[in-house]
Amino acid sequence: MRMLLLLAVLPALPALSGCVEAFGDQAADEPGTALGAFHVVATQTSNTCGEGALGAARLWEFDVELARDEGALYWDNGASVVQGILDDDEGFSIEARVVVDMRGGDMPPGPPCSVERRDRARGELRGVDDDITRFEARMTYEFAPTAGSRCEDLVPGELSVAPVFAALPCGMTYDLEAKRSARPPE
Q: Which of 35, 126, 137, 141 has the smallest CB count inside 10 Å?
């Protein structure tokens, strides 16, 4: 169950995730000027969390919609929109975090344990003028128990029944290559 909780959260980032519906007319409450939908291929370059931890694969594909405003890039993974920073040279950075209670639902009782995941993406938009057709980025995920958490059972050891991580804290890094799959609405 703990693994399923984190797996449900992993794709929710910007950084990484999930299916996006067909890109139609932009709703009035969506921020910025739409750049289009992009198909992303993510290749894992490092992983200290353990092979297959949290269901992470070496190769991962997902779709994301991007929009921009002055100094801002909006990353919409279909579940949430995360605002990042966009510089004058089309470089961008996005950061997000989420905390997951690892003792929720039908888990057996135990000491409090929650894990914070910090997501960071840094990259460059590519195209001619305002017509962005692709982007490249590096995305990192860092996992660590929150202050006061007792999460010893999540890593291999005498308290562990089904470890989720090889070690905590830990991290994963992906190189992202993205190509536009749908133009922005006119």
A: 126
Contact 45, 174 (CB under 8 A): yes
> In residues, how long is the chain?
186
Both tokens assigned to 13: 């980032």
- How many angstroms separate the CA atoms of 16 and 176, rounded? 9
Q: How far is Cα 22 from Cα 64, in angstroms, rounded to an integer?
A: 11
pLDDT digits (tens, 9 = 90+) for 91-117: 999 999 999 998 765 566 677 889 999
| 3-state secondary structure (DSSP) of residue 182 | strand
Name the pTM for this structure: 0.79
Q: How, if at all, do strands 81-86 and 72-76 pair?
A: antiparallel
Tokens of 156: 């291999």
**By the 8 A CB rule, do 93 and 138 touch?**
no
- Which residues face 123 on adjacent strands? 92, 137
